[in-house]
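PROTEIN FOLDING TASK:
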Amino acid sequence: MAEHHNTAPAELGAPMEYAEHEKTYAGFLAVTKWGTVAVVAVLIAMAFGFFVGGIFSATVLFILICVAAWFLL
């Protein structure tokens, strides 16, 4: 049997749930922002650990950068 497909343009299709779209986009922006902060913090901590030496001090620096970003952003 043939299924019924809507052949109308997308603009005339089902109503969009704009609140859900905005919620999803806000979540995407938050994940992108905090992912970028984490990557930058890891790179800075790795460079610090390489040049100064010590994994403990690099870990502390990583945590400090993440906490500072939490309060600043």
